[in-house]
Design a protein that fits this description.
It is built from four helices and two strands, in the order ααααββ. With about 100 residues, it is mainly α. A hairpin with a 2-residue loop joins strand 1 and strand 2.
């Protein structure tokens, strides 16, 4: 199935475009540190392979859900921004108005 330009832009923005921004965001870096600390604690539990696999599947499902949610939010924000630009008159007839 062919992807729309909107889907391509969303994938790039979510998967590639945010990387530099996130690396400079203090709150994001704090959350990453917390994840690293919790991962070390989890590893120290020495759970069985079966338990680790089940937990991995659960976490992966949460991650997949969160990533999809984020992509949909990005698309909705993009649409809202376009509608706002139309509403305030910066875009008319599908074209960007020239600024004076």
């Amino acid at each position: 199935m062919r992807k729309s330009i909107f889907e391509v832009i969303t994938e790039y923005a979510v998967n590639e475009g945010l990387s530099d921004t996130l690396q400079q965001d203090n709150k994001y870096m704090q959350i990453q540190k917390k994840l690293d600390d919790l991962t070390r604690e989890f590893d120290a539990l020495k759970l069985s392979k079966e338990h680790r696999f089940l937990i991995d599947k659960l976490i992966s499902s949460y991650n997949e859900n969160g990533a999809y949610y984020g992509a949909i939010c990005y698309q909705q924000g993009f649409k809202d921004c376009a509608l706002l630009l139309v509403e305030i008159g910066m875009i008319k007839g599908g074209k960007m108005e020239e600024s004076a």
